[in-house]
Write a structure and sequence with these properties.
This protein has 172 residues and is of the alpha+beta class. The protein contains 8 helices and 6 strands. A hairpin with a 3-residue loop joins strand 3 (81-89) and strand 4.
Length: 172
Amino acid sequence: MAAAASRRVPFKALQHFTGKVVSCSLALPAARLYLRRLYAAMRGQSARRSVKLCHGAMRDLRWWRRLSTSPDVGRALWPPALGMQTADASLWGWGGHWNLVPALGFFSAATRPSHINVKEVAAVRLSVLSLHAHHPIRGGELLLQIDNKVAMSVINSFSMRSPALAVEFRLL
């Protein structure tokens, strides 16, 4: 009973907190991952009542609390720029470069019939793997430049409808 009471928070306080955190979500991309359960807890609740949080939402709140006292917050908000990586795909192969270091290869016979959007995401994955094998990429922000809007949208928003594109994105 005491544990259930400790998981209750006032609706207005949770609403105020999530609103403030949303304003930080552009600077801290991981914020979206730690807000979903909090919004789910508020769904369908009255503003006059307290909200009972699930264990996952409690873990998310603890993550936010640790973040506020972490000495690494500056690094989390502004990761160092690693440079620009380009990647492109054709019917038969892929290529890319990072800081003037080239990476290229051919698609396997099983991959060749795939749609070009799938090949573009595969080109990003293969060029990152190839470049990382020769020049390890450490933590930071890697700017990506590709010429396919669908592939870029999939990589930026984590959303796709094609099952083949979803498989390739998970590999990435």
